[in-house]
Amino acid sequence: MANALQQLIRERLDRKGWSYGDVARRGGVPRSTVHHLATADRVVRMPQPATLEGLSKGLELPLDTVRRAAAEACGIHVYGPATNAGGEAPRPTDPEVDLLIASVQKLSADDRRHVAALVESLLDRSSPEK
Fold first, then answer.
1. Which of 10, 41, 58, 106 is a good FRET partner for 1, with 20 to 30 A between their CA atoms?
2. C-alpha torsion sign, points 73, 34, 48, 62
3. Please, which pLDDT band fits residue 113 given cuts at 50, 70 and 90?
4. pLDDT score for 82
5. Alpha-carbon distance 87 to 97, whole Å?
6. Cα distance between residue 102 and residue 65, in whole Å
7. What DSSP letter does each residue of 39-105 carry, written as one string?
8. What's the chain's Rg over C-alpha atoms?
């Protein structure tokens, strides 16, 4: 079974149609490093911060998402909040949600309004009839 970092890298490569080289070029890290992290059965130690930053940039994912996956792959549990604001257990992190949240900050105010309208429309469409 693939570790968390392998899964993150493989899912991103499959979704985007990228190669290890594509990620390495965008992130400024060696292709061999990307390949190793994507294929190693076990990550023995936490990758260097610069490697994680490059991988984050190359995969176009938030650094925290990549850091958490790398930590889990090393057997390090990263504790989050015990409960969310509603008193419920927090949901596991989802790279797509993390990416959406991080990306929205880069949009213009007008574009954010369009995204908000789209999200409201999708939520209305998926909610049961009242």
1. 58
2. negative
3. confident
4. 45
5. 21
6. 11
7. H-S---SPPPHHHHHHHHHHHT--HHHHHHHHHHHTT------SS-TTSSPPPPP-HHHHHHHHHHT
8. 17
Q: Quick one: CA dihedral 11, 16, 55, 24, positive or negative?
A: positive
Q: Which two tokens stand for residue 120?
A: 């409201």
Cα separation, 81 vs 89, in Å, equals 8
- Quote the tokens at residue 124: 């209305």
Q: What's the CA angle centered on 98, arms 10 and 52, to 5 degrees?
A: 55
Model confidence pLDDT, tens digit, residues 53-74:
999 999 999 998 999 899 888 8
3-state SS assignment for residue 108: coil
